[in-house]
């Protein structure tokens, strides 16, 4: 089976894991955690970083550190993995779901501004939802497939309405926005290092920021809010610490992140060049103002195709192809959430076919994927 995304573990992973075993530093204390945080800061251009156990934990802690509380609201795109919404719910807050734009598949800033303008009121410098009376606490755009959102516009909207901006950059390690690193685009930015990400720790996440107090609070909360070496805790905290074992794998991965990013770009170009002549399909977004991390590559199917049937045919030929995220507003836990209209999201989500995008995939395997998919699309299979 040619898998959708497999980790590429041909670097120093084994060496660093043996160091963890030899030194007995396998838990949340150890030198690789600090080294990993330093590498994430260096790659992202943010001076402050704290590592956590998962991307979801990172989002939860970033939201809390930026002041999101129970019974408040956070604006997020509906077109995202459900973990984005769940992190809001873990704070006791509610989601306000916003559609994406067609150009980038990221939160539509014009629509966001329209929703806030027409459905909120300002009282003493704070923004409240008219119908429910709940305070709007933050905006959390998602860097879809590693594509940075319209951050200049979103930050302006955040300032206009007095809202924190937290970026869900789960798959965006190494992405660029207007030629610059993405670490300072939001009040806090969160990466995931799950097993299917471009660089992985097996599981893990990281919170970065240009503001030391945000990262310090996130770190405190994620380490059981413990004060010093004694068992004294000043807040209700969480055990969201990254282990030295996870960080060891992550360090080995981040040493090769530029190589991985180049391979991800190559995969996207390969699929485009080999299939651009096929009618009734299109390709994943590219924009002039940002360089995506190209987490996944694939195609968008026209109306004539049955995506589930195509996935089944690919599996029968030893190729994993998969539908992408089902939008949050169509998920049972969030079907009653506040939302904008969803014309773009509803028009594309069930037409997106992700294709094998592992950084270790060979040209022979890529050509096989293309040959099989071409035969399926033109009706030979």
Descriptive account of the structure:
The protein has an 8-stranded mixed β-sheet, sandwiched between helices. The protein has a 4-stranded antiparallel β-sheet with strand order 12-14-17-15. A 3-stranded antiparallel β-sheet has the order 9-8-13, with no helix packed on it. The protein is built from 12 helices and 17 strands. Helices cover 36% and strands 17% of the residues. A hairpin with a 2-residue loop joins β4 (120-123) and β5. It is globular. The chain has helices at residues 13-23, 31-44, 55-65, 83-90, 109-119, 151-161, 212-222, 244-254, 257-275, 307-316, 343-348, 363-377; strands spanning 48-52, 73-77, 94-98, 120-123, 126-129, 136-139, 164-168, 176-177, 180-181, 188-192, 205-209, 281-283, 290-291, 297-301, 322-323, 338-339, 352-355. The longest helix is centred in the last third of the chain and has 19 residues, at 257-275. The chain has 381 residues and is an alpha/beta fold.
Give a summary of the structure in a few sentences.
This protein is an alpha/beta fold and 381 residues long. Helix content is 36%, strand content 17%. The protein has 12 helices and 17 strands.
């Amino acid at each position: 089976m040619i898998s959708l995304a497999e980790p590429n573990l041909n670097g120093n992973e084994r060496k660093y894991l043996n160091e963890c075993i030899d030194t007995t530093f396998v838990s949340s204390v150890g030198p690789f955690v600090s080294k990993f945080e330093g590498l994430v800061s260096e790659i992202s251009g943010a001076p402050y970083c704290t590592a956590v156990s998962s991307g979801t934990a990172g989002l939860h802690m970033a939201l809390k550190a930026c002041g999101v509380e129970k019974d408040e609201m956070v604006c997020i795109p509906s077109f995202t993995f459900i973990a984005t919404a769940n992190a809001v719910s873990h704070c006791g807050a509610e989601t306000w779901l916003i559609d994406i734009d067609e150009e980038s598949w990221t939160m539509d800033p014009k629509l966001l501004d329209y929703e806030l303008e027409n459905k909120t009121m300002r009282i003493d410098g704070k923004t409240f939802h008219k119908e429910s009376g709940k305070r709007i606490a933050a905006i959390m755009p998602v860097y879809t497939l590693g594509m940075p959102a319209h951050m200049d516009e979103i930050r302006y909207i955040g300032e206009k309405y007095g809202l924190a901006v937290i970026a869900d950059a789960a798959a965006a390690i190494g992405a660029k926005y207007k030629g610059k690193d993405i670490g300072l685009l939001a009040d806090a930015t969160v990466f995931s290092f799950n097993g299917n990400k471009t660089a992985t720790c097996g599981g893990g996440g990281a919170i970065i920021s240009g503001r030391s107090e945000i990262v310090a609070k996130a770190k405190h909360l994620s380490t059981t809010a413990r004060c010093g070496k004694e068992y004294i805790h000043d807040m209700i905290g969480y055990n969201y610490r990254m282990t030295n074992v996870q960080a060891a794998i992550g360090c080995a991965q981040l040493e090769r992140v530029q190589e991985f990013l180049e391979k991800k770009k190559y995969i996207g170009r390969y699929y485009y060049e080999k299939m651009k002549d096929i009618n009734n399909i299109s390709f994943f977004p590219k924009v002039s103002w940002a360089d995506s991390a190209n987490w996944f590559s694939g195609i968008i199917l026209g109306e004539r195709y049955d995506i589930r049937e195509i996935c089944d045919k690919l599996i029968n030929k030893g190729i994993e192809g998969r539908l992408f995220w089902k939008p949050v507003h169509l998920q049972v836990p969030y079907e009653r959430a506040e939302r904008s209209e969803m014309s773009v999201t509803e028009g594309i989500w069930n037409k997106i076919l992700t294709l094998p995008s592992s950084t270790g995939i060979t040209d022979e395997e890529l050509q096989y994927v293309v040959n099989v998919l071409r035969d399926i699309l033109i009706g030979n299979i």
